[in-house]
User: Fold this.
Amino acid sequence: YINEETIQSVKRIFSLDFFVTNDKNKYKQQAIIELENNEYAFNSDIQESLQNIYFKSFVQDIIACAFEKSKEYDQTRPLTLFKKYSRRDVCRLLNWSKDESSTIYGYKSKHGTCPIFVTYHKKDVEAHLAYGDEFLSPDLFRWFTRPRLTFESKEVIEILNAKESDLHLHLFVKKDGGEGFDFYYLGQTTLDETSAKEETMPDKNNQEVSVVTANMVLEQSVQYDIYHYLVEE
Assistant:
């Protein structure tokens, strides 16, 4: 899978433009330099290090390992069904210009895409964070927006009109908060606009506030073992 957006995304990784300040400080300097005619080269430090046979063998080993690992993934699309990804992985693979993983509070629309992240079993959380997201079947998911939103809210309108605006909704789910940072990718979804409702849920002061719910139809039923793993307590 490759297009011009992907090429530019790879360039942002090597130039560090994709990363936030803390990561830039960690990596110190960009790995590549841009030459003429859309050609690139490693920076001088890396080129010098590659003269060392041991360092070069490590780099070659990483590349060989990456090629082998890539065989487990669908090469025709950015994301592979039922594989696990972090929020940062998703920003990168959907070709976002920056790593915005720290500001994706459940979901975020950007560059014609809207990844939606759900922790299925919300243990030991306050009531105002216990959204009622749930599977209704292996190919149907009931989804909650953030609280205090209505049909008139900008982000709700955007998501409800996803089909017309060609906004691609991607659903990611993990079983509970103890699973770390990675979510199962369950594919693109189509919003069932007829199922959208304005409901209420308690806020941190136990006052009822508005929330919008809707059913999402998955492009493919969730794999049997993953589905039962996610839904079972």
Summary: The first strand starts at residue 32 and ends at 34.
